[in-house]
Amino acid sequence: MLMKINKTPVQSTLSRMMDDFFNGFGDMHESNLMATKPSVNIVENEDNFMVEVAAPGLDKKDFNVTVDDDILTISAERKDESEDKSGTFTRREFNYTSFSRSFHLPETCNSEKINANYKDGMLILEIPKREEAKKKPAKTIKIS
Asked: In this predicted model, what pLDDT tens digit does every residue of 11-34 receive, in sequence order?
């Protein structure tokens, strides 16, 4: 049997405030986790693969893109610090953002000619295919 507990208005308000605080903290924590792993789109066409990484708020210098043993790794790191001194009050804020994503490149890729461009919050990598991997046009064979 469940008992209903009557709360005084002060207890009810305090309880609601605590719930709002911790629920808000949970949402903030979850959004920070989402921010550490940006969305990635990978598109293949006849000539290359395009990898698009949504990473707004970062600068070109924050990124590191490497290829090692056909593993493409895209990572970024940014540290921000601010300090506000007003009389006897000091407020310091730290913000640290980082992520790392790795992808196994298919044998059809030419990893020596990868091109990267960062603009408007999007890192775009163009990974060309090897010539022998590109689809050849149909060839008509003459019958004799």
From this structure: 555 555 555 444 443 333 333 434
